[in-house]
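FAQ

Q: What does a record look like?
A: Structure on top, sequence underneath. For example:
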């Protein structure tokens, strides 16, 4: 049986090695880094950590492209998992959250607008929303576009903070 107390976050050296490695392999490093968002989003790993690291490793412009593509792909994957294989599990988990139930009812009327507005709010967690929207009647294409647009301002902010941290670290 897996002992969750023995699992820890990567230490600073491991993280530094990984960021150096993805930077060093060029285009494929950016693709690999972006792809890492998919399992992270499905497994409830905070996207903000990856987004900060994208800024640290790739700078503001390239980091924003990498993080935006990755977080959108991760949101899509979690949405599809909730809509298909994990529907019952997600339904049970969300049942006791009245705010999410209210959002679900509102999405039936205005899916694009509701997804966009909730993505702009820092109060509602990214990973929970991915799964919650998978239970609604939101159309996938509208969900994806609204998620991408709504997450973009936060993505730019976290990438910028990561890039700034890299600048400070290099001093």
């Amino acid at each position: 049986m897996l002992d969750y107390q023995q699992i820890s976050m990567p230490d600073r050296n491991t993280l530094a090695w990984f960021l150096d490695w993805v930077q060093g392999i060029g285009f494929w490093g950016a693709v690999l880094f972006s792809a890492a968002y998919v399992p992270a989003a499905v497994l409830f790993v905070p996207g903000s950590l990856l987004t900060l690291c994208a800024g640290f490793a790739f700078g503001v412009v390239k980091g924003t492209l990498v993080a935006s593509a990755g977080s959108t792909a991760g949101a899509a994957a979690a949405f599809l998992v909730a809509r298909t294989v994990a529907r019952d599990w997600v339904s049970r988990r969300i049942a006791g959250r009245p705010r999410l139930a209210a959002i679900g009812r509102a999405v039936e009327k205005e899916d694009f607008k509701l997804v966009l507005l909730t993505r702009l709010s820092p109060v509602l967690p990214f990973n929970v929303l991915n799964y919650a929207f998978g239970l609604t009647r939101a159309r996938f294409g509208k969900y994806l576009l609204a998620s991408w647009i709504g997450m973009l301002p936060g993505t730019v902010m976290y990438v910028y903070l990561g890039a700034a941290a890299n600048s400070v670290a290099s001093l």
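Q: Is there anything notable about this one?
A: The two ends are 45 Å apart (CA to CA).
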